[in-house]
């Protein structure tokens, strides 16, 4: 069958959503389906369109054998009105990319942003095809729960759009059990509409390293250190400040915190570390996914942090599965679904969110008990291999889709694209 993905965020951008969607597309293609993507010029997280893509309104390229249609958007960093303009500009201009794509059997729209439901629905009606809305974040619930926005006209309009979307979508895909429960119990989405596609991991790309990358360790000046690695977004919901506070409580010079990634909170975190005069914390920019295994190879402990809120209780951070696949023991500051998974796998230690003393104690326990750390790392690896490999998850999602609505018999593979060179207009 033919599946068209509409998303604002896609490779070569770095981020959990981009990694998830790239893996989703690769697995669909490996299963014999035709996949195309309509997305924006890469711009995240810097808020600037990447070099090589600037000055173009439309570009078509091939990534991993998948045709990608890119359109211009107003790229901005941060939150507020500029972020809304970024969302709205792509929601409008993506229509041009959709018209350049082939008619699919299923149109898969990834959210946030919620605004993409409108062009997605319009295209699905034009093509008379099935509209699948993928919910990776319950917006506007999340911005209210996290205190980013207050109740008012904007959030009321958001709830109205959300309700309209769920009513008009043929299927709604949930990425966590918490989202699925909310869709059923609070959003009144019929169970016959709901599909489930949780976060997974590429267990062949991320696996326990035979040897650590000592050259990288030396470049970072961390020879002889036990590294606590955080790799991911530095955003409000991630509450990475917990790591800075925990680092300030650890006097052991052999333990070092390495924070890899970008996000709106990063300047504040760097300022906090400077004011605390911490010599055991290093910040690095985001790295391409293919370079992440080198950083994992030198890590002794993986850190995952979440803010305390109702929304994050239903979260499954993708980084958790990556760390498990790499065989790293986890210290998780969180509660709810993410904590349940780590607990079920016996893959790490769980502490309450915003409890830096508990986090520091957990780090010290794993740093000083190599047998426990190794055992938990091995447990995590076995757990994701058995339950969260992308091929397994996508195969199950396709089975759900076929049971709910079999694809038209007329769907047949198109001639494969021969060109791999981008074309622009």
Structure description:
The chain is α/β, with parallel strands linked by helices. It has 2 domains: 2-200 and 389-424, Rossmann fold (3-Layer(aba) Sandwich); 214-386, Rossmann fold (3-Layer(aba) Sandwich). It has 15 helices and 15 strands. The chain has helices at 16-30, 81-100, 117-127, 141-145, 153-168, 177-185, 214-219, 241-248, 266-275, 292-297, 318-325, 337-345, 356-368, 370-387, 390-404; strands at 2-6, 34-40, 58-63, 66-71, 106-111, 130-135, 171-174, 194-196, 226-231, 255-260, 281-284, 299-305, 330-333, 348-351, 423-424. The strands form 2 sheets. Strands 8-7-6-5-1-2-4-3-15 form a 9-stranded mixed sheet, sandwiched between helices. Strands 11-10-9-12-13-14 form a 6-stranded parallel sheet, with helices on both faces. Helix 12 (337-345) links the parallel strand 13 and strand 14 (348-351). Helix 8 (241-248) packs across helix 13 (356-368) and helix 11 (318-325) packs across helix 14 (370-387). The model is unreliable at 410-425 (pLDDT under 50).
Can you give keywords for this protein?
globular, Rossmann fold, 425 residues, 18% strand, 6-stranded parallel beta sheet, alpha/beta
